[in-house]
Amino acid sequence: MSTQFNIHRHVGHIFEETVAKFPDREALVFPGTRITLRQWDAHTNALATKLEALGIEKGDRVSLLLPPGPDYPIAFMAAAKLGAITVPTNVLFQPREMVSQLKDAAPKVLIMMSQFMNRNFAAIVDDARSELPDLKYVIARGPDHEDFLPLDPIYETPVPQRESFVRPGLTDEDNIVILFSGGTTGLPKGVPRDTYSLLYCYVESHGWVNENDTMLLVPPFFTTGGFLQMIFPILFGARLVGMAAFNPQTILQTIQEEKCTLMFAYPTMMRWIMAQPNFDEFDVSSIRHIGIGGEAMTAELIMTIEEKFSCVARTGYGMTETTGTALTPIDAPPEMVFGSDGRILPDYEIRFVGLEGKQVPTGETGEIHVRGRPVFKGYWNRPELNAKVFTPDGFFRTGDMARQINDEGYIRFVGRAKDTIRRAAMTIHPDEVENVINAHPKVAQAGVIGVPAELSDERVWAYVQLIPDAEMTAVEVRDHCRASLAAFKQPDEVRFLAEVPMSSVRKVRRVKLRELARREMESGAG
Fold first, then answer.
1. CATH numbers and ranges of domains, the chain
2. Residue 274 pLDDT > 60, yes or no?
3. pTM for this one?
4. pLDDT grade for 327, boundaries at 50, 70 and 90
5. Which contacts qualify for 424-432: CB closer than 8 Å, 24 or more apart?
């Protein structure tokens, strides 16, 4: 591990050290707002002082129901300095889903925007108060509300001078956030993370980032990929630039205007950005490194990104439960840049387990089992699930299928075990089929599932969303697949949708596709 950054201490101390190094460096840029590290810390200390006065103790939860903006990192650092645990809540959720997540977290304080995206979050919280007995205080930005504390006056309140606002005794092993995993297949599961586990992979990859960089925030803060972007200003002193919402045109405009040098996005997002018809009208030459992950990757996509942005594009493998487990080094050989999902980092111990429960050799596909200091210790309030996902010797069963490519530790992600399609004695991974279909220039997004069949175990169904004004037939889709996929992997059925159902981070929601296929089968359409 790099000795330049000491993460064997609490994130509050790390942040205060960064503020001391670069106090007047611009840290957070959002529409209409620019604040320096010194200003961020001042607002953080004011909010932390208020939370402390409200009785926030170590281990208490502080939920956030906020849009993209500086309030998010301010609230996170304020809670962290007190030893409280931040719980991001998805602003795209329906009220039932929001309340379910809040009930699970049982926060003592909720910090929120009263109204956002034409939605009245204040009314949602009012209606749910009786279901949230642990919620003592709501701090809100927006119209006055008799039961809410206004946020802006808290920032403006003078605070006493202290050498540090970090509560004494906090360490790198204290949980600082509960992130959520599993939203594409069922109810999200809370994943507590501490300082070391959250920051480890960024320290290992620090060679491509420094305090002069500008990171473009693409995924929203309530996602793991978005939340982790706060690490760039906290650990490195880099600038973080965000937008009001995900929009490809706004992303390109922001890169041009703010001279962003770094960004991270999911493959689906990158395809959407690069598909903009006026892409070449924007100056994206400031971008020097793009990180991509979250889905199975193709060499063609990495090559296209590097060509269109004239930058270095690198992928990796990780989960909310493990953060970045494998990363592709800057100096990786070309065959590993385009043919792997990174090299396992030193703090992780990995094994690949086959269907019969035995470890498989290098080159064969198996489920990833992982253990190590950066791996989470268990799901929030899920003791029965924790007993299932951890092996007796402490390995976490990820549910992800991959293979180790060589003895240097490079791996290739294949797909989720639960999404695997079985046909006779053959295994089909939907991500592989989707990647082939997505490579067609007329396709905006594909979603592939297995549908029960009488004679062949499962049939491969592909749901396809075309780019605007494009026309395509099922025969064309199959012909396209035939050139790249073995016969048993090719789609049996092709359905066209106006929009393939996606999660808030632009991942295919296969559970929705399975529901759609079931209805079609029941109606006789299949």
1. 11-185 (3.40.50.12780), 279-416 (3.40.50.12780), 420-523 (3.30.300.30)
2. yes
3. 0.85
4. very high
5. 424/456, 424/457, 424/488, 426/488, 427/365, 428/460, 428/488, 428/489, 429/296, 429/401, 430/510, 431/295, 431/296, 432/296, 432/485, 432/489
